[in-house]
Amino acid sequence: VQLQASGGGLVQAGGSLRLSCAASGSQFSAYPMNWYRQAPGKQREWVASIASGDSPNYADSVKGRFTISRDNAKNSVFLQMNSLKPEDTAVYYCNTFTRTSIGTRHYWGQGTLVTVSS
């Protein structure tokens, strides 16, 4: 599985951005999709997840401001980010994983930088 994230940029606090992640593969609808982020000097943290047929889940820090969605026909997952805060500044990564007989394998996109100015 190859993932390609895009849509990052510089935005003022209170603004919005929409991240996109395009995935390769013919079984995209079966993949649980996640967004993670990594701020400078901090560990990567989970932001949101969505699986086909399930309700999305969000980290408390973004709940009510971010919305994750997916378009299985376009092999894509999105992250709509509203009311952005300076603490949302990070490199955002899309992720999925597969479970095999020998364990879990994670796939990561290259990341897209979001910078929120105060």
How would you describe this structure in keywords?
about 120 residues, 4-stranded antiparallel sheet
Mind explaining what this structure looks like?
By secondary structure, this protein is mainly β. 0% of the residues lie in helices and 54% in strands. The chain has no helices and 11 strands. The protein has strands spanning 3-6, 9-12, 17-23, 33-38, 45-50, 57-58, 66-71, 76-81, 90-100, 103-108, 112-117. The strands form 2 sheets. Strands 2, 4, 5, 6, 9, 10 and 11 form a 7-stranded mixed β-sheet that branches. It has a 4-stranded antiparallel β-sheet with strand order 1-3-8-7, with no helix packed on it. The relative contact order is 0.31. The mean pLDDT is 95.
Question: How is this fold's topology laid out?
Answer:
Elements: E1 3-6, E2 9-12, E3 17-23, E4 33-38, E5 45-50, E6 57-58, E7 66-71, E8 76-81, E9 90-100, E10 103-108, E11 112-117
Parallel strand pairs: 2-11
Antiparallel strand pairs: 1-3, 3-8, 4-5, 4-9, 5-6, 7-8, 9-10, 9-11
